[in-house]
Amino acid sequence: MGLYQQLQARAAQGRPIRIGLIGAGKFGTMFLAQALRLPGVHVVGVADLDVARARSNMEYAHWPGERIAAPTLDDALRSGGTCITDDSAALIAHPGPEIIVEATGDPVVAVGHLLAAFEAGKHVISATVEADAVCGAALARQAQAAGVIHSMAYGDQPAMTVELVDWARSCGFEVVAAGRGHKWRPEYRYSTPDTVWDHWGLTREQAERGRLNPRMFNSFLDGTKPAIESAAIANACGLDAPSGGLAYPSGSIDDLADQMRPRADGGVLEGKGLVEVQNCLDAHGRVIGNDIRMGVWVVVEAVTEYQRRCLEEYHVATDDSGRYFAAWKRWHLIGLELGMSVANVGLRGEATGTATEFRADVVAVAKRDLAPGEILDGEGGYCVAGQLRPAAASVAMGALPLGLAGGARVLRPVARDRILARADVAVDETTSAARLRRETEAMVAPG
């Protein structure tokens, strides 16, 4: 049976997949809007530090008041309703939810939630891809030791790229490159929450109507989120980061096969097996038609003459050599598509992507001159942006991981555009995220 038929069967049997959601921001609310329409899925509880905001967002997403009136998690289990709470620890520990969806967006907080869920014997779907970028491989080991699943969130671009890469390899093709799209100008790396809507493509009114978080969207614009998601893709698919970071070559979907191939074959890549991000703007800042800004792609190579002949016979659009071609999904729908992860984890016991190694990292880069005593505000803020680097290089240089930058105190001057070193700042080394980061860095072989 397909996933939807299996969900229907679970509904008919009266044993739905029980979900606990942590974080009712944009991603969480998008999932909640769809959860109402998913048979065989019961959101037992929603944990958010701001209960009033969570309730308001659920009502905004068309949840009827009676469905969110359960005063306790036990009441929610009995009634089939949903309890809204500010106690994430209680939601994780309660026997009701079998899957925890982590959607806070804070890597340090998320790691704590994930480890608690593993200890409680719960599967986890993590929409906080920032945690994957910091210590995803170590988290995967922890989940495996606990006998549970740690999964990326389908709807986010990394899990959807993992699906394309898996498709390509399962068909017998060689993956040359994979990644996502973006809207990029070099000056965007200095963007702040005050300037994000000037460049994003939405008015402030549209952003406020959609209850959009300017810091989160600024993380996309300033290049941090593309770096984070590219790292997650690389570490889940066994791909590498470009040695100098993401290049953001400009182009359209039609250009992918010619562009995302090695330089020796006429492309822009330094080699095969890389992650990259295609830019939807040309050199003058104009939008290129038929872009992949909101989607994901994979470029594969037909390595035998017979494969190449088949592509020709079936009129597949390839590069000029007939060896490389691209497959893609033009759109990703974020939390609206999370049901795919819920169904795969809950029904098939399969993750929709998880880190297997530490090949790519996201380093913190100064957006402006930083002075001793300043407290960094982390992802999407005013102080630092994230850039992609090979993990071996970032560990060798002692770089500060972007995911640990929030709340770090600057110890010595750092010039704009410089990669911060761990020695430049004081980081709280007592957190679980910092501990697992050390375990992750130890996975990089010396030299």
3D architecture notes:
This protein has 447 residues and is an alpha/beta fold. The protein folds into three domains: 3-155 and 337-348, Rossmann fold, CATH 3.40.50; 158-184 and 223-332, no CATH class; 360-441, Antifreeze-like/N-acetylneuraminic acid synthase C-terminal domain (Type Iii Antifreeze Protein Isoform Hplc 12), CATH 3.90.1210. It contains 17 helices and 14 strands. It has helices at 3-13, 26-35, 51-60, 73-79, 88-93, 107-119, 129-146, 157-170, 196-200, 204-209, 214-221, 224-237, 256-259, 305-313, 339-348, 391-396, 432-441; strands spanning 17-22, 41-47, 83-85, 99-102, 123-126, 150-152, 174-182, 274-279, 296-301, 324-329, 360-366, 384-390, 409-410, 425-426. The radius of gyration is 22 Å and the shape is globular. The mean pLDDT is 96.
